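Field guide to reading this record: the first block holds the primary sequence, the second block holds the structure written as discrete tokens, and the final block holds curator observations. Each block starts with its own label. This record concerns PA14 domain-containing protein, catalogued under organism Alicyclobacillus sacchari.

BLOCK 1 — SEQUENCE
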Amino acid sequence: MVNRKKRILFVGIVSLTLLSIWITSQQTSLADIQNGDQISVSVGKAWTNGNIQTGFSGTGDNIEIGGNNCSTAISAIEVADQQAMNGYGPGDYLFTSSTIIPGNGANQDWINHFLVNGPYGFTLTDNTNPSDLSSRVKYYAGSDVYTLSGWYAQPNPYSNTYWYAPGQYVHLAPYAKPYVRIDSVQNGQSLVPGSTVTVTDTNNDPSDDSTGNPDKVPGSGTPSGLIAVWYFNNMGTYVNADVGHSNEQVATYGFTPWQDTYIPAIAPTRSFQITVPSGASGSGMLYLYYVDGIDRYYEASYAVKTAAPASPPSVTFTANPTSLPAGKGSVVTATGKNVPANDYIELKDVSGLDTIAGENTYSDGVYGETSLSQTVYSSTPETAKYQAVIINGNTGHVDATSGTVSVTWTSSGNTGGTNGNGGNGPTITLSASPTSLATGKYTGVTAIASGNTSGDFIEISDLSGAGTFDGSNTFEDGVVGETGLSGPAVSQTPQTVTYQASIINASTGQTVAMSNQVQVTWNSGSTGSGNPYSPVSITLSASPTSLQINQPSQLTATVNGNTTGDYIEFVDMGNGYTLQGANIYADHLIGESQSEVSAISTIAQTGSYTADVINASTGAIIAQSNEVLVTWTLPQETIYVSASPTQLNSGQSTTISYQASNLQPGDKVVLSGVGASPPFEEIDTASTGSFTDMRNPANGQSVAVTYSAEIVNAAGQVVAHSNSVGVTWKSTPPAITLTADRTSNQPGESDHITYSVTGTWAQGDYVVIQGTGGTDAWNVANDPNMYDVYTETENPASGQTVTVHYTGTVYDSSGDALSTSTLDVNWVNAWTGTITLTANPKYLPTGQSTTLTATTSEPIPSGWSLVIMDETTGQTVSTSGTSSETAQYTSFDAETDTFIAWLNDGYEQIGTESNSQTVVWTGLSLSANPTLLPSGQATTLTVSGQNVPSGDYLVIVNESTGQLIGSSLSTPYTVQVTESEPQTDNFVAYVSTNSGISGELMQSNTMSVDWYGVTLTATKNRLFVNNSTTLTATALNMPSGYVLEIEDLSTGGIIATGQPGQMVVSSVQTRNQPEMDQYEAEVVQPGNPTAPSINNNVGSIPFWTFTQMPGYIPLSAFNQTAIPSTNYARDIWFAVGGTNVPNGVGFFLGSFFLSSSQAVTFNINGTVDDYEQVYVDGHAILQAKFGGSGQEDKLVGSGIPESTSTTIQMSSGEHQVVIEGLNDNGFSGSFFNPAGVNLQVVSNGVDVLDTSDASQWMSTGYISQLPSGWFSGEVGTWSWEQTLLQESSAQPVYEQQTFTLTTPAANVSATSTPVSVTWYSYDLGLSATPTTLRAGQATTLTATSTTGGGPGDVIEIYDETTGKVVGTSTPNASSYSATWTESAPTTDTFIAWFVNPSGGHDQASNTVQVTWNQAKLTLSDAEVYHTPEWQQNLQNYNNYYTNVDPQPQLVRSESDFWAGEDLLFKVKPSITDIAQAYVYLPAISMNPMMPPGSPINWTSPPPIALTYNPSDGYLEGDIPTAWDEWLQYMQDGTYTVTFWVKSTDNQVATAQASFTIRDTWVSGNDPGTYFHEHQTW
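BLOCK 2 — STRUCTURE
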């Protein structure tokens, strides 16, 4: 893809510098001889070639002064500088009157000619005034000695002063340069050494002569011809082969030499055959010179290189870079080798991702090209694959295909940089497209960088200094970090320009990397490809030209003129990637006169577009359209402002909100409010926002603020205005109000006089209160408060009234009255009020209080009292001198009392008493029996009421569920309640005016009833012998003092018992023989048997060794806290003072909790003194003695592991640890001695119980009997050995007895549903026949059992590999067979099961593996057959010679083929997993007249690959396209082809088929030519 700047067509202005004319003394100025003058020429004796003419006349013979680059006609006399010295081109006219040809530097006279009287001088005379000697000017041949850069690197090294530099000769004849061209050589042509090249002079170049006359050529007597100079890298000498050039010599100039070849001329139209030097190799140049016997004329040069003899074409493909960020371009380049002259190169996106200018293919249609590049883009991360092909331009046949190259676009770009920015060395490549075009047309010069370019930018340079970048010699955009840059270049004059790109560090200006050089040639303009005399123009339009981003504008290009061979191309001049994601778009429809494309921009911009007519063969721009501008704009920003509320009182806040749309980066919202001070302003960048404002007008004034907003862009420009919203704050004028608690008071009663000001209070406002009358009136001046209170008391005489008159006024700061209020308050010495009495509640249970409240309508006079009395009992409840009066009254009896209130003046009741209030106390109680019971059983609820009001109900409600249990008008009321699930319910009773609770008068006590239950589960109900099942009992709401246990109903034994309050108990059960056991979980209350007492008359120490201790011992048996041992750091002992302690025995109790089943380790780490036994959940696990030297283990520890550590896998839940400790002083006496026991319990590396923390342990202290309740924590049978030990080593054991005690279940309150567990023992075997077979074949699987399965069991055979059931037997079967087949190679594993009726697996068999191998590979239906077109031709042919012109001998069989007919091959494999497949042709007899260049050796053709067609199961192939044109040379005969196929499992199969070539490719009326008239290859 090419990025171009805006292209401008312009006409170049050539600046001409005229060579100054120096004239010696006695000579006049050359200006005396004007263009158009008739002149005579006189020459010295050296001019002997007869090429002299005098008296020139006519326009064509005018003398041109200064050289043929001027605008006048071709001159008659020319001093030619054929080497283009000193900046002048071939054919320049250099005149000098100097006698010295100047040199250079220190050697000023390098070439010294004395020409004044020399043989080579010449004189021009003006014929209009021949006698005027002043008009005669003598001129001399001369020139600077500098030569064209690139031919000679140094000044001409000739030192002989009598030799001219080569090419400086004088022409004295009407002369025009010949028009020489090379017909068969292109620039960059590869030539075979020894081959010939044709050079012609058409003698009709109209540009040589402004009159359009044919070229002027020397006469036939003049030796003339053409010199062809070959230059190749490997040639070491300069070879001069000119004829008749005695003034030239062989010389070596210090540079790579040349070889001259002189070709005699044939006039007037010349055609030369020149031969490429046979010894040449590598690259070189071909230079052409016209020679007329005196001068050599440099005409043209061509870059050439040697090539090997013709070989089949090939093409390679590269991409740079192959990994780049999305949105960047990669340059893909196809390089062709041995490309035929009528072939061209095409690039393909074989992934179909449209990355080549929005297409999947690209070609410039240039025939014979050897290189083609294009830039590919992808805007999204993806990987595209590319390939190049060489296509025959005549037939469309693909002559060569490259390998594929992948280019990956990623979501992130380069990192790092160069020259301190990362240093990973970027590289840069340069390309141009097109490289040959007409003058005035633009080419795109594209540079692509790879590697790290952060910190760098790209610059493209015009090395020729031709100013082709819009007058500049450089092009850059200054984008730092860019990886690609494209610039438009144009030339208005024919020339070849060289370009190069550089990566430049943006900070230092240092050149980081330089690209290859690329040349672009501008030729004379063209009028079109189809018709050279039909001018082509193109017009571009766009609709619409103004729109918003992401909207399309339709670009339409219309061409006038002949567009044969051309297509239309659209260009985004602004590099906006708006043409389907690219900057150039073309549909490549050759010959089109109109094309359209949609331009879409995702950003705001003005896009500049042009359209070109492109020659499909050369890529040259034939015509260019007008420029069209399309402007995309962002959606206009808008903003709306609102306020709420808009009408407010002073001091209230309003919320100002704005809503902006289409905000752009850099935009900000300026929200302002005007009309009040200070003004409001907020600035925000969000699209929405809300702010508050508050104003405070006062004294009835108002404030109005108008709010609006603007959107200001990043440049500070206002881009949007909002609406305006007005908000008004109003203030209320101050208004004063005077109030009193009462306006009429009793004598001596205090009253509160209050003023309050409403409205808006301004600074400086104040209040004045004036009170008149009375002795304690309130007066205040200048009060700045809006509220104040004064307490006033007046004491009028009996029967008198004191009236106080108040006036309150609000003044502003100026003293103006704003508001006034008045108030009169009386103190009256008389009481005429009323009394009101209330009671709440009026219905309540006995023992609860009612609240009595007496309130007077007027204050109670001083000294008077308000009395509340129980009229029913005559009891005074309360007396008070103030109103209101409140009293609490409680009755503990069920009764109904009536209450009144009245005033007493100290002597008697005054006035009317109050209303009466009746209060009812009802005795209300609720009971339940029982309150603890198993779920499913019923409890009886009884409610009793005394003094229940007539007509009221007793109602019972379950508060836990909200259920109304029942109601009754009678008392007592009884009802039963049952709960089917374990739960606790709370019940309450009400006295209600109706049968529900909406008329509730009072509530009883709350009664809780607990229903409990138990469940039992087993992890497996059926299992194989020697396997385990876990039984889990779960209790809900288990009553206190009860335990949960699991009973084996088969044996009557208790297999697990929990501790009191433990709700879950588990037990693992295993059987080693078939049996079925039943289990039941029970909630039981253990009994409390008494342990046998010890008759210890001898003072011995008792010790108990338990075979089975209760798993739970009540905490009540341990009445002391253990204390740290005073002798050993980690030990504990009983609470006795002193360092040493007495001998004796006792128990310690600790516990720990596990959240899950874990391995628990028990360690005895410290010193044991003298002996300890450790029990966990009633099981003895460890014993230890002092220093390992005691004998207690032999005396009392029989059967207990003697170790200091053990690890046990324990279930989750609470676990009890009991340590029995003994201090016996080694049986050596009764004196005090050290003692201690220790234990550490560790789970998951954490101490869960440790004697190092004595607070974790309780103890029994020293004991002589087992504590009471020792066996009451668990139901079960316990056994132990009781030993009496003496403090004498002679006889440590006084007595030993064995005891057994059973703790019965005193009460079994709940049982679970029984659970059955069955252990079984069945045998089941599985076999398969066969175990190895071909895919598609069946194996037989057989399961057998000698025992059979369980009742109702079936045998199921299962494929573990596929997860499918092979088959299932009938119930109670002891054997079963089923077959199984796999269609593809695989190995399956099978197993059989006894499956019980519940779906569980009772027994598994052994497993069996069966392997299916690949099916045998065979081939069938091998055939060589016709294409559909050929098949139709064959049918038509046979029909003709069968039915139209019957000639049986000419009828052809299906296996007969015409030479030149395409061949199709197919064969059918027996399997589909094919790794490789080919068909091999035998040696083919070819016509001896077959031309050279065949792509293959027909005596041993390469194999042809076959492709599997899943639609019909055949492997198919045909003759490669490159062979097609050679099939016509096949000779008659029958040929046998061989099909070779290899499967993925390395099986190989072959098959053969034959075909016959009958009738070679001939012409004429022979029937064998039938195909000639019907189809071409």
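BLOCK 3 — OBSERVATIONS
The first strand starts at residue 39 and ends at 43.
The radius of gyration is 62 Å.
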